[in-house]
Amino acid sequence: MKNYLILAFILCCSINVKAQTNTITVFFDFDKSEINTDFKTEITKQLKNQEITTINLIGFADYIGSNNYNIQLSDRRVNAVKNHLSSIGVTNITKAHGKGETTNFGTRNLNRRVDITYTLAPKPITDESEKYNTNENLEVKDTSINIKENVQSELGQLDKMKVGESIVLKNFEFIPGRHFLMEYSKDELDYLIKVLKEKTTVNIEIQGHICCETENFDGLDWDTGEYTLS
To answer: Do 88 and 42 meet the contact criterion of CB atoms below 8 Å apart?
Structure first.
């Protein structure tokens, strides 16, 4: 009977150096699309006069009512948020869409919502040590030969590993908020495939993870509008 080595490859969402991605969730009363004053205050506090590179609005409703009505209701909620953002000078909306009814967030009151996911422009790096580390990282990512050498060094340890141990492939990174690999990660994926074809007794476990999510059980996938990013 063959022994199988199970590896965990951590697939993480990549965030640019010094960039900040955050989510503000706006909750609504039953069958309403008006924004509560407290939420308006919070949106204004966090987003007014900020240098925002991307901003995405996804609206939801609970399951009461017909599907068509709930789609329209979630659209009205998104438009209400969009209008408030416009009133404080935030007009560069990347995507705004009402998804209709959902039960993904637990109780009904948590499903009556609009999620505002936004990315702030990277902050200038002033510390000399941070500049050095950033340039070093970018150099590795932009050089496919270096990436392959890095992968080869990590995967070369397979024969010495025990079942259940993990390898983290650091250059497996995704476009922020999306489920597509960064260009420099594709070389690493090709090399991984090559290694697995050679080591036919190895089974792997793939684990998807996200960073920077604080209020939801998973990350928002901007392409699908669903909290299934990992």
So the answer is: no
Q: Provide the pairing of β-strand 113-120 with 95-101.
A: unpaired
Helices and strands counted in the chain (H then E): 6, 7
How many angstroms separate the CA atoms of 85 and 217, rounded?
26
| d(C-alpha 223, C-alpha 230), whole Å | 13
Provide the Cα torsion 157, 162, 163, 165; round to 10°: -60
What pTM does this model have?
Answer: 0.52
Q: How far apart are CA 184 and CA 172, in angstroms?
A: 8
Pick 144 or 38 by higher pLDDT. Answer: 38
How far is the C-alpha of 211 from the C-alpha of 77, rounded, in Å?
27
| Tokens encoding 170 | 């650091």
